């Protein structure tokens, strides 16, 4: 029998990788025990100082084995983030005992869209089993949840390159639904085409309007391209597959491209290097968020039109030391030049400061409504 040194080494690597997985699973088990002690002691899940010291020690330890500092840091950021999310999930499940274990979730489809990826990532952390429901517009998603056709809906709300998704903000203005979660996704746009295509041959590009807005610098380099808007990036991919020509392409994600059998001609060309989209999760029922984890509260408010009305509202938040993570305004339909403000706040709706601030806001604004309180997705150090 011939001795193949490569195969022998690969066998050893595979064996070590299996051990690594076992160790990570053991670490997660300990993290579960830790959260149970935290629940009993009523202390916050997050201990930034402990995380900092742990990573510092591990970097020093790694140095002895010639492991790169950045590598060790990145590795442990992922491991600790997973540990924090696990603890948050356990806490939330205890608090919301009636939360469903299996759920039907609507997203902007067909499968292979960014919304589909976001939905799957959120679901993996929250449910044992899901049924996917593909919708062709954001409005359909809101309606499906509202009518009880699905349990939850996932919609994008903002992107680091193109800003707010206005259509979703406008739907939030009139909805009875609640925001119960958020999830951020790194978006690496790809030019996807059939196997005979090349960048030089492309004449027509299909996608949802959002990717075009996020990649204007790149698109401007191809002034001859004909741009065609589709309902979603995945329907754009489907169109390219159906046309089966070498001169057409879609903008979408790599995983979606694989699903549709398309090759990547170019990627990573959004205006912002860190192209991130934040999605929100909608439900008919609000959830309770543990005060032991970091939470966000999103409110809608309409101020009067007198001078300083918005400043007065913001001062209420400042006086209560409440951090605003986002402030957006949208026209109120039917009332020209009147604006609705959407404010994302760091904090739990149940906290004394938040309750006090909301009470004061209600008394000085024309309208204030809580759209939801949900665990903050931002758990990286
Ligand atoms: O040591 C803790 O308190 C933990 O909960 C464990 C752990 C970790 O995974 O290392 C997770 C979250 C905390 O912010 C700190 C550390």
TrEMBL record:
Stretches of the chain forming a coiled coil according to its record: none
Main location: cytoplasm
Catalytic activity: prephenate + H(+) = 3-phenylpyruvate + CO2 + H2O; chorismate = prephenate
Subcellular location: Cytoplasm
PROSITE patterns the UniProt entry points to: ACT, CHORISMATE_MUT_2, PREPHENATE_DEHYDR_1, PREPHENATE_DEHYDR_2, PREPHENATE_DEHYDR_3
Entry GO CC: cytoplasm
Signal sequence residues: none
One Gene Ontology term of the molecular function aspect: prephenate dehydratase activity
Enzyme Commission designation: 4.2.1.51, 5.4.99.5
CDD domains: ACT_CM-PDT, PBP2_Ct-PDT_like
Sorted UniProt keywords: Amino-acid biosynthesis, Aromatic amino acid biosynthesis, Cytoplasm, Isomerase, Lyase, Multifunctional enzyme, Phenylalanine biosynthesis
Pathway terms, separated by semicolons: Amino-acid biosynthesis; L-phenylalanine biosynthesis; phenylpyruvate from prephenate: step 1/1; Metabolic intermediate biosynthesis; prephenate biosynthesis; prephenate from chorismate: step 1/1
Domain Chorismate mutase: 1-91
InterPro entries assigned: ACT-like_dom_sf, ACT_dom, Chor_mutase/pphenate_deHydtase, Chorismate_II_sf, CM_dom_sf, CM_II_prokaryot, CM_P_1, Preph_deHydtase
Limits of the Prephenate dehydratase domain: 104-284
Binding-site residues for substrate, renumbered to this chain: 10, 27, 38, 47, 51, 83, 87
Swiss-Prot/TrEMBL site (Essential for prephenate dehydratase activity) positions: 277
Domain ACT, first and last residues per copy: 298-375
General function of this protein: Catalyzes the Claisen rearrangement of chorismate to prephenate and the decarboxylation/dehydration of prephenate to phenylpyruvate.
PANTHER family (UniProt xref): PREPHENATE DEHYDRATASE P PROTEIN, PREPHENATE DEHYDRATASE-RELATED
Name under which the protein is recorded: Bifunctional chorismate mutase/prephenate dehydratase
